[in-house]
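Weekly structure sync, notes
Attendees: PL (lead), two postdocs, one rotation student
Agenda item 3: pending single-chain targets
PL asked that the sequence for the first pending target be pasted directly into the notes so everyone works from the same version. It is reproduced below exactly as submitted, 260 residues in total.
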Amino acid sequence: MDTASYDQDSMWFFLPDEVVVDIFGHLHPADLGRTGLVCHHFRTISEDSFLWRSLCKEHFPFVQVGNYDNDWKKCFVLRRNMQTGWETGRPGDFKVATLRGHKNYISCFDYYRNNVVSGSADSTLSIWNVTKQKPIHSLTGHYGIVNAVQFNEVRIVSGATDCKVKVWDTATGQTTNTLSHNGAVNALQFSETRIVSASADRTLKVSFFFPCDIGVAYCGAEQIYQTGVGRAQWWSTADPARAQPSGQQSRLHRQPCDQL
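Predicted structure, written out during the meeting:
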């Protein structure tokens, strides 16, 4: 049977495209890519954006398709190649860039798009542009080893053994807020409305920030939780005034914005 008669007689030719898309959705990504070689009809369906979006969300849940020209297939292929290169260590998949500037060992780092923020045992942080391989800002203000850092395009949050959590402006490198623990700050995470910091003093502090009327300063509320040794605990912090850990006592501490 020649190809033309096969195409006309095959059941695939009569199935609605929605059904074929659903069937193709169960294929391995490599097999999905090969189906486009069968015929023009299969090629069109195998490049359906919905299929590749589903694969991206399954394998790379935090991927930003905007970085790949909003092309889900391109996004998946490039991320899969990157993952394969990372796992197999093939030479040529990555370009190594060495960033020098600290006077002691690197204790933590975070990256966002083309920028990296590194924290060091020399008590400083540096913002780097990876493309240009040059430092943008050097942040000074801590007096201990910087143990934790996280940042985005707006702010940088760092914690150190000097018992301080500092909030920095990403664009200027200036400190905008300082929060305190009674022990070294070992870990932290932040979102648009809060910072969660963990300390060697066995407390977990959730700081809630709200914009106020004096520029870069913030009005905030702090919820402090006493943690146990060797135990994992969970709290709901949707409302700072009502968040209470089970079986533990918390205290709410509010500060006016001019004291933060």
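Discussion points:
- The two ends are 80 Å apart (CA to CA).
- The first strand starts at residue 106 and ends at 112.
Action: rotation student to compare against the earlier draft before next sync.
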